[in-house]
Amino acid sequence: MTKRYDEQVTVERDSGMPAAFLWRGRRFEVRDVIGRWRIEGQWWEDGRDREYWRVEAKGGAVVDLYQDRGGGMWHLERLWD
Question: Are 12 and 74 in contact (CB under 8 A)?
Fold first, then answer.
């Protein structure tokens, strides 16, 4: 089961991969990168390409983070139970 948030976060990177993220005033260290994928925007939507990272944070939380390709703000899209 998941819960969708789509909230802005700050991500720290190490060698191009997320190493930690700041969400709701709390810092979470990334323990493992579970997956990475890209979604190409569709003309009928917002048209933006996004790069997603599914990560496991220290403590066991699994989240999906995304960033619009070409830079931009990071978002925490989903928290997995």
Answer: no
Non-local CB neighbours of 23 within 8 Å, separated by 6+ positions = 7, 9, 76
In the chain, the amino acid numbered 19 is: A
CB 62, CB 80: distance < 8 Å: yes
Q: Is this prediction's pTM over 0.85?
A: yes
**74-80 and 62-68 beta bridge pairing:** antiparallel
Q: pLDDT of 21-63, one tens digit each?
A: 999 999 999 999 999 999 887 765 667 789 999 999 999 999 9
Read off the amino acid at residue 39. Answer: I
- Domain-by-domain residue ranges, the chain? 2-80
Residues linked to residue 65 through DSSP beta bridges, in sequence order: 53, 76
